[in-house]
Amino acid sequence: MITSIKDCATLNNGVKMPWLGLGVWKITKPEEIDFAVKTALEAGYRSIDTAEVYGNEEGVGKAIRESGIPRDEIFITTKLANSEQRKGYDAALRAFEESRKRLGVEYIDLFLIHWPVKDKYVESWKALIKLYNDGLVRAIGVSNFLIHHLEDIISETGVVPAVNQVELHPWLNQSELVEFCQKHKIQVEAYSPLMGGRLGEVTELNDIANKYRKTPAQIVLRWNLQRGIIVIPKSVHRERIIENSQIFDFSLSDEDMELINSLNRNQRFLPDPNNVYF
Does the record bear Disulfide bond in its keywords (predicted)? Predict the structure, then answer.
């Protein structure tokens, strides 16, 4: 039972990762990234998710240092950009080091392959395995990988990712992928869990929210947690950052869980991982 913002999932290598984190995609203004990260940390968040392509690693690192919270209490995730992945194995290793320098940290908690770039992601996975074996990163994983991508890297290397971060929300519940990952002890992490602000279009969520005296966003985040899925909602607004953290004092009934599950449309708002041309 997940009942506290301090609660963590245990990854397949024993590393603890918070169930709730702050996503910082599209937050590029220095003052906004500083405010969002510090506000989240003040609210009790202990996980921050960034990426090279977000262009805000430096700001994330600065805000973490200035927060006064010990480094070992904060879980930092960043990702290998497609542009670097396309350059091959050595470029992936260099990209990790550049991310580490921009963040201003000795180590990174979780390093992910951002997208499964065709004919490159297996090679990239081998680079991440080296980084892990060298003790430079506490856990390695992937993002936007479908079942066949996961099967490829596991069969080629024998190393199972610790995390698969994917687009996941009520209209794209990824049930088959979640089942596969849970069977293979890969922790699923949901990005864009709040459908990019489209939750208001889902009338069923309003009904459930009224029942629990919560917001639709809080309902959806709790739905993810009860499925065993880590969530990283994004916001630059204090009230939303705090609201998104207030999901540990209630539980959804089995009936309401099933109702939200039934909303699936297999609808993506972001690119199809089988067609990575960017």
Answer: no
